[in-house]
Design a protein that fits this description.
binds NADPH dihydro-nicotinamide-adenine-dinucleotide phosphate; alpha/beta; 16% strand; 11 strands
Length: 304
């Protein structure tokens, strides 16, 4: 039987309905959530991501600042711009589009962000808050998006065995931490596999939910899952396709055609996790505005 398709675009739209309401409430209190995105260099894919973030902010009525800097920008110039946004009370969320040019020390830039405005959730203080289960912190958007997809699709997380493929700081690691949290949206039994894992197919076959985030085109095959498992595909990979006008097409980390015949539910690529990542960036920006207000200190939101 064909798996149920988990429609990331439709679920993201639901998130936007809530965010529009919350934004209107904040505006009524004199606070317009503001996001600043800094792009260094002229990487085409990064430019497209930044454009779509800016567009979504505007659609939601958020204040959006897009700062495009040349590839020759120095570390200290970039730090100075981050500092300006840290001090700017009209800005509640700041992100520096990754990857920056090679001469930039990305980790140092992340550490320079005011953690209360770190809507990407990469600052050490926010990583610590995720581990400590302090809900006032920011969780990386893709991980948050995967959790939200599961919740909105009413797929049981609590007590389920969830296998996450990939242990990156952006996706795999924060997702594992999020799903194992001791709260109603967590409580999963999480296994993380990576490039050094032995018996990977055996492990993934024992999963109720498999999340693939490894960046290997169509890696996960039908043989990797048990009948009726739920499959979430985070991967975005370009594969050559002479039949396509662009010369390539986008595929996930999951061999969709064969896996969708065995899974009970699956996300497509595109249209699955991707739209949720940007929705969660908007959600994190609104949360930052709620916590910071018009520039004051954050409200305590533990247990939020
Ligand atoms: P990284 O390259 O940072 O991490 C990949 C992870 O996968 C590593 O932990 C690596 O293991 C593991 N891995 C690689 N090959 C294998 C293998 N053959 N078997 C098992 N594990 C393997 O990637 P990201 O986490 O940044 O991204 C993963 C994918 O998700 C990419 O396709 C990316 O484009 C996509 N992505 C999509 C987003 C979205 O919004 N939909 C957002 C972010 C990413 P090890 O640690 O041992 O090297």
């Amino acid at each position: 039987m064909m798996a149920k398709l988990i429609d990331g675009r439709a679920i993201a739209e639901k998130v936007y309905v809530d965010l529009r309401r919350e934004t209107a409430e904040l505006k009524a209190q004199g606070v317009t959530p503001g996001l600043a995105v800094i792009l260094v260099g002229d990487d085409a894919a990064s430019r497209a991501y930044v454009r779509s973030k800016d567009k979504m902010c505007r659609e939601l009525g958020l204040h959006s600042v897009k700062l495009e800097l040349p590839a020759s920008t120095t570390q200290s110039e970039l730090l100075a711009r981050v500092e300006e946004f840290n001090r700017d009370s009209s800005i509640h969320g700041i992100l520096v589009q990754s990857p920056p040019p090679e001469h930039i020390d990305e980790a140092a830039i992340v550490r320079a962000l005011d953690p209360r405005k770190d809507v990407d959730g990469f600052h050490p203080e926010n990583v610590a808050k995720l581990v400590l289960e302090d809900a006032s912190g920011f969780v990386p958007c893709t991980a948050l998006g995967v959790q939200r997809l599961l919740l909105e699709s009413e797929i049981a997380i609590s007590g389920a065995h969830i296998v996450v493929l990939g242990r990156s700081l952006i996706v795999g690691k924060p997702l594992a931490l999020l799903l194992m949290q001791k709260n109603k949206n967590g409580n999963a039994t999480v296994t993380v596999v990576h490039s050094r894992s032995r018996s990977l197919p055996q492990i993934t076959r024992s999963a109720d939910v498999v999340v693939a985030a490894i960046g290997r085109a169509e890696f996960l095959k039908a043989d990797h899952i048990h009948e009726g498992a739920v499959v979430i595909d985070v991967g975005i990979n370009r594969v050559e396709d002479a039949a396509s006008e662009r010369g390539y097409r986008l595929v996930g980390d999951v061999a969709f055609d064969e896996v969708s015949k065995k899974a009970s539910a699956i996300t497509p690529v595109p249209g699955g996790v991707g739209p949720m990542t940007i929705a969660m960036l908007m959600a994190n920006t609104v949360k930052a505005a709620r916590q910071l207000g018009s520039g004051g200190s954050p409200e305590p939101t533990k247990g939020d």
